[in-house]
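Incident log entry.

Two folding requests arrived from the same account within the same minute. Monitoring flagged them as a possible duplicate submission, but the sequences differ. Recording both here for audit purposes.

Request one:
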Amino acid sequence: TMDLNEATAVPPLPPGSPSADERQWGMFAHLASLVGIVIPLGTILGPLVVWLVKKDTMPFVDDQGKEAVNFNITVLIAVIVSGLLTLVLIGFVLLFAVGIAWLVLTIMAAMKANEGAAYRYPFTLRLIK
Protein backbone atom coordinates (compact mmCIF):
# COMPACT_ATOMS: atom_id res chain seq x y z
CA THR A 1 0.00 0.00 0.00
CA MET A 2 0.96 3.62 -0.50
CA ASP A 3 1.45 5.89 2.48
CA LEU A 4 0.17 9.47 2.57
CA ASN A 5 3.59 10.97 1.80
CA GLU A 6 3.89 8.96 -1.41
CA ALA A 7 0.36 9.87 -2.50
CA THR A 8 0.93 13.61 -2.06
CA ALA A 9 4.56 13.75 -3.22
CA VAL A 10 5.21 16.22 -6.03
CA PRO A 11 6.73 14.42 -9.02
CA PRO A 12 10.25 15.53 -9.98
CA LEU A 13 10.46 18.15 -12.70
CA PRO A 14 11.74 17.13 -16.13
CA PRO A 15 15.30 18.27 -16.93
CA GLY A 16 15.44 21.89 -18.09
CA SER A 17 12.28 22.86 -16.21
CA PRO A 18 12.26 26.06 -14.16
CA SER A 19 13.32 25.61 -10.54
CA ALA A 20 10.84 26.16 -7.71
CA ASP A 21 12.45 29.56 -7.11
CA GLU A 22 12.09 30.53 -10.79
CA ARG A 23 8.47 29.37 -10.85
CA GLN A 24 7.73 31.45 -7.76
CA TRP A 25 9.37 34.58 -9.20
CA GLY A 26 7.59 33.96 -12.51
CA MET A 27 4.31 33.94 -10.60
CA PHE A 28 5.34 37.16 -8.82
CA ALA A 29 6.06 38.79 -12.19
CA HIS A 30 2.40 38.33 -13.11
CA LEU A 31 0.89 39.07 -9.69
CA ALA A 32 2.98 42.24 -9.32
CA SER A 33 0.58 43.91 -11.75
CA LEU A 34 -2.07 43.82 -9.01
CA VAL A 35 -0.11 46.66 -7.39
CA GLY A 36 -1.85 48.80 -10.01
CA ILE A 37 -5.08 48.53 -8.05
CA VAL A 38 -3.60 50.96 -5.51
CA ILE A 39 -0.68 52.64 -7.33
CA PRO A 40 -1.15 54.50 -10.63
CA LEU A 41 0.71 52.68 -13.45
CA GLY A 42 1.58 49.93 -10.96
CA THR A 43 0.18 47.41 -13.41
CA ILE A 44 3.26 48.05 -15.54
CA LEU A 45 5.74 49.09 -12.85
CA GLY A 46 5.20 45.98 -10.68
CA PRO A 47 6.05 43.40 -13.37
CA LEU A 48 8.76 45.70 -14.76
CA VAL A 49 10.59 45.79 -11.41
CA VAL A 50 10.41 41.98 -10.98
CA TRP A 51 11.60 41.48 -14.57
CA LEU A 52 14.49 43.96 -14.29
CA VAL A 53 15.68 42.49 -10.98
CA LYS A 54 15.56 38.80 -12.02
CA LYS A 55 15.96 38.74 -15.83
CA ASP A 56 19.72 38.18 -15.83
CA THR A 57 19.74 35.35 -13.29
CA MET A 58 16.50 33.49 -14.09
CA PRO A 59 15.66 32.77 -17.76
CA PHE A 60 12.07 31.73 -16.91
CA VAL A 61 11.46 35.02 -15.07
CA ASP A 62 13.03 36.90 -17.99
CA ASP A 63 10.42 35.32 -20.28
CA GLN A 64 7.43 35.66 -17.97
CA GLY A 65 8.37 39.16 -16.82
CA LYS A 66 8.51 40.41 -20.42
CA GLU A 67 5.18 38.74 -21.10
CA ALA A 68 3.58 40.39 -18.05
CA VAL A 69 4.97 43.85 -18.93
CA ASN A 70 3.83 43.53 -22.56
CA PHE A 71 0.35 42.39 -21.52
CA ASN A 72 -0.06 45.26 -19.07
CA ILE A 73 1.09 47.80 -21.67
CA THR A 74 -1.55 46.34 -24.02
CA VAL A 75 -4.18 46.61 -21.26
CA LEU A 76 -3.20 50.24 -20.61
CA ILE A 77 -3.73 51.01 -24.32
CA ALA A 78 -7.13 49.24 -24.20
CA VAL A 79 -8.10 51.25 -21.09
CA ILE A 80 -7.15 54.54 -22.77
CA VAL A 81 -9.17 53.66 -25.89
CA SER A 82 -12.11 52.52 -23.74
CA GLY A 83 -11.86 55.71 -21.71
CA LEU A 84 -12.12 57.77 -24.89
CA LEU A 85 -15.09 55.68 -26.01
CA THR A 86 -16.99 56.55 -22.84
CA LEU A 87 -17.93 59.70 -24.77
CA VAL A 88 -20.17 57.44 -26.89
CA LEU A 89 -21.15 55.26 -23.89
CA ILE A 90 -19.78 51.93 -25.25
CA GLY A 91 -16.55 52.70 -23.39
CA PHE A 92 -18.17 51.98 -20.03
CA VAL A 93 -18.92 48.41 -21.10
CA LEU A 94 -15.45 48.06 -22.61
CA LEU A 95 -13.75 49.35 -19.45
CA PHE A 96 -15.63 46.78 -17.38
CA ALA A 97 -14.78 43.98 -19.84
CA VAL A 98 -11.09 44.96 -19.98
CA GLY A 99 -10.92 45.07 -16.17
CA ILE A 100 -12.45 41.62 -15.74
CA ALA A 101 -10.31 40.13 -18.52
CA TRP A 102 -7.16 41.70 -17.00
CA LEU A 103 -7.87 40.22 -13.57
CA VAL A 104 -8.82 36.74 -14.85
CA LEU A 105 -5.88 36.50 -17.27
CA THR A 106 -3.40 37.77 -14.66
CA ILE A 107 -4.50 35.09 -12.19
CA MET A 108 -4.40 32.40 -14.89
CA ALA A 109 -0.88 33.48 -15.91
CA ALA A 110 0.33 33.44 -12.29
CA MET A 111 -1.05 29.93 -11.77
CA LYS A 112 0.56 28.64 -14.99
CA ALA A 113 3.91 30.25 -14.15
CA ASN A 114 3.78 28.66 -10.70
CA GLU A 115 3.33 25.30 -12.46
CA GLY A 116 6.42 26.04 -14.58
CA ALA A 117 4.52 26.69 -17.83
CA ALA A 118 5.53 29.68 -19.96
CA TYR A 119 2.17 31.44 -20.23
CA ARG A 120 1.24 33.56 -23.24
CA TYR A 121 -1.50 36.17 -22.85
CA PRO A 122 -3.95 36.43 -25.77
CA PHE A 123 -4.23 39.67 -27.79
CA THR A 124 -0.91 41.00 -26.47
CA LEU A 125 1.36 43.46 -28.26
CA ARG A 126 4.85 42.09 -27.67
CA LEU A 127 6.76 45.37 -27.63
CA ILE A 128 9.59 44.16 -25.38
CA LYS A 129 11.41 41.27 -27.08
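Request two (distinct sequence, not a duplicate):
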Amino acid sequence: MIQDPGQLEQLYKNFVLKAIEHGKVWTLIKHDEMALFDSQLYEGLTATPFFSDREAAFLFQTGEWADFEVAEIELSSFLERWLTGLYNKDIMVAAIWNDVATGREFEPLELLLDFLEELQQRQHSVSFDNYFSIDDFILKIKDSLSE
Protein backbone atom coordinates (compact mmCIF):
# COMPACT_ATOMS: atom_id res chain seq x y z
CA MET A 1 0.00 0.00 0.00
CA ILE A 2 1.35 3.43 -0.97
CA GLN A 3 1.53 5.87 1.94
CA ASP A 4 3.97 8.54 0.72
CA PRO A 5 1.92 11.69 -0.05
CA GLY A 6 4.35 12.77 -2.77
CA GLN A 7 4.05 9.43 -4.52
CA LEU A 8 0.24 9.51 -4.21
CA GLU A 9 0.19 13.00 -5.70
CA GLN A 10 2.34 11.87 -8.64
CA LEU A 11 0.11 8.85 -9.25
CA TYR A 12 -2.92 11.14 -9.21
CA LYS A 13 -1.26 13.52 -11.68
CA ASN A 14 -0.50 10.50 -13.90
CA PHE A 15 -4.20 9.54 -13.70
CA VAL A 16 -5.18 12.99 -15.01
CA LEU A 17 -2.47 13.02 -17.68
CA LYS A 18 -3.35 9.52 -18.94
CA ALA A 19 -7.02 10.43 -19.18
CA ILE A 20 -6.12 13.58 -21.13
CA GLU A 21 -3.76 11.60 -23.37
CA HIS A 22 -6.42 8.96 -24.11
CA GLY A 23 -9.17 11.58 -24.34
CA LYS A 24 -11.38 9.34 -22.22
CA VAL A 25 -11.95 7.58 -18.92
CA TRP A 26 -13.65 4.29 -18.10
CA THR A 27 -16.17 3.23 -15.49
CA LEU A 28 -18.48 0.30 -14.71
CA ILE A 29 -22.16 0.46 -15.62
CA LYS A 30 -25.05 -1.99 -15.64
CA HIS A 31 -27.98 -0.71 -17.69
CA ASP A 32 -28.31 2.85 -16.31
CA GLU A 33 -26.78 1.97 -12.93
CA MET A 34 -23.27 3.08 -11.99
CA ALA A 35 -20.99 0.97 -9.84
CA LEU A 36 -21.20 2.50 -6.36
CA PHE A 37 -19.55 1.92 -3.01
CA ASP A 38 -19.64 3.64 0.37
CA SER A 39 -17.50 6.76 0.47
CA GLN A 40 -14.34 6.40 2.53
CA LEU A 41 -14.31 10.15 3.25
CA TYR A 42 -17.90 11.10 3.92
CA GLU A 43 -20.31 9.06 6.00
CA GLY A 44 -23.63 8.51 4.29
CA LEU A 45 -22.36 9.28 0.77
CA THR A 46 -21.47 6.93 -2.05
CA ALA A 47 -18.67 7.06 -4.60
CA THR A 48 -18.26 5.74 -8.12
CA PRO A 49 -14.97 4.63 -9.68
CA PHE A 50 -13.33 6.02 -12.81
CA PHE A 51 -10.21 4.65 -14.45
CA SER A 52 -7.67 6.28 -16.76
CA ASP A 53 -6.70 2.81 -17.98
CA ARG A 54 -9.18 0.55 -19.77
CA GLU A 55 -7.52 -2.68 -18.61
CA ALA A 56 -7.69 -1.64 -14.95
CA ALA A 57 -11.44 -1.13 -15.31
CA PHE A 58 -11.84 -4.71 -16.58
CA LEU A 59 -10.04 -6.02 -13.50
CA PHE A 60 -12.84 -4.58 -11.35
CA GLN A 61 -15.59 -6.62 -13.04
CA THR A 62 -15.73 -9.00 -10.08
CA GLY A 63 -17.89 -9.64 -7.04
CA GLU A 64 -20.87 -7.34 -6.89
CA TRP A 65 -19.73 -5.68 -10.14
CA ALA A 66 -19.26 -8.90 -12.13
CA ASP A 67 -22.28 -8.20 -14.33
CA PHE A 68 -21.34 -4.56 -14.95
CA GLU A 69 -19.88 -3.51 -18.30
CA VAL A 70 -16.78 -1.40 -18.79
CA ALA A 71 -18.01 1.86 -20.27
CA GLU A 72 -15.80 4.28 -22.17
CA ILE A 73 -16.56 7.97 -21.63
CA GLU A 74 -15.14 10.73 -23.81
CA LEU A 75 -13.22 13.26 -21.74
CA SER A 76 -15.43 16.20 -22.74
CA SER A 77 -18.55 14.30 -21.64
CA PHE A 78 -16.86 13.17 -18.42
CA LEU A 79 -15.97 16.74 -17.54
CA GLU A 80 -19.10 18.51 -18.70
CA ARG A 81 -21.84 16.00 -17.93
CA TRP A 82 -20.65 13.27 -15.63
CA LEU A 83 -18.74 15.27 -13.01
CA THR A 84 -21.31 18.05 -12.83
CA GLY A 85 -24.11 15.45 -12.67
CA LEU A 86 -22.38 13.53 -9.87
CA TYR A 87 -21.89 16.79 -7.99
CA ASN A 88 -25.63 17.51 -8.25
CA LYS A 89 -26.39 14.00 -6.92
CA ASP A 90 -23.88 14.21 -4.03
CA ILE A 91 -21.89 11.24 -5.33
CA MET A 92 -18.14 11.23 -4.78
CA VAL A 93 -15.66 10.24 -7.50
CA ALA A 94 -12.92 7.67 -7.01
CA ALA A 95 -9.99 8.13 -9.36
CA ILE A 96 -8.47 4.63 -9.61
CA TRP A 97 -5.06 4.35 -11.22
CA ASN A 98 -4.08 0.73 -10.92
CA ASP A 99 -5.39 -2.80 -10.55
CA VAL A 100 -5.25 -2.90 -6.74
CA ALA A 101 -7.67 -0.03 -6.22
CA THR A 102 -5.06 2.51 -5.31
CA GLY A 103 -6.58 5.88 -5.87
CA ARG A 104 -8.17 8.91 -4.33
CA GLU A 105 -11.69 10.00 -3.66
CA PHE A 106 -12.78 13.47 -4.72
CA GLU A 107 -15.69 15.79 -4.68
CA PRO A 108 -16.62 15.90 -8.39
CA LEU A 109 -15.99 19.61 -8.89
CA GLU A 110 -12.54 19.33 -7.28
CA LEU A 111 -11.57 16.68 -9.83
CA LEU A 112 -13.20 18.72 -12.60
CA LEU A 113 -11.14 21.80 -11.75
CA ASP A 114 -7.94 19.76 -11.62
CA PHE A 115 -8.65 18.42 -15.10
CA LEU A 116 -9.58 21.82 -16.51
CA GLU A 117 -6.52 23.50 -15.03
CA GLU A 118 -4.25 20.78 -16.43
CA LEU A 119 -5.88 21.13 -19.85
CA GLN A 120 -5.47 24.89 -19.65
CA GLN A 121 -1.82 24.64 -18.60
CA ARG A 122 -1.07 22.27 -21.48
CA GLN A 123 -3.05 24.44 -23.90
CA HIS A 124 -5.03 21.35 -24.82
CA SER A 125 -8.28 22.03 -26.65
CA VAL A 126 -11.53 20.29 -25.76
CA SER A 127 -14.91 21.07 -27.28
CA PHE A 128 -17.75 21.54 -24.83
CA ASP A 129 -21.44 21.89 -25.57
CA ASN A 130 -22.21 24.47 -22.87
CA TYR A 131 -18.94 26.38 -22.50
CA PHE A 132 -17.02 28.49 -24.99
CA SER A 133 -13.62 27.51 -23.68
CA ILE A 134 -11.76 25.87 -20.82
CA ASP A 135 -11.35 29.34 -19.26
CA ASP A 136 -15.12 29.89 -19.45
CA PHE A 137 -15.77 26.50 -17.86
CA ILE A 138 -13.29 27.17 -15.01
CA LEU A 139 -14.83 30.58 -14.33
CA LYS A 140 -18.36 29.18 -14.15
CA ILE A 141 -17.34 26.31 -11.86
CA LYS A 142 -15.47 28.67 -9.52
CA ASP A 143 -18.46 31.03 -9.52
CA SER A 144 -20.83 28.20 -8.59
CA LEU A 145 -18.50 27.07 -5.80
CA SER A 146 -18.37 30.56 -4.29
CA GLU A 147 -22.18 30.88 -4.13
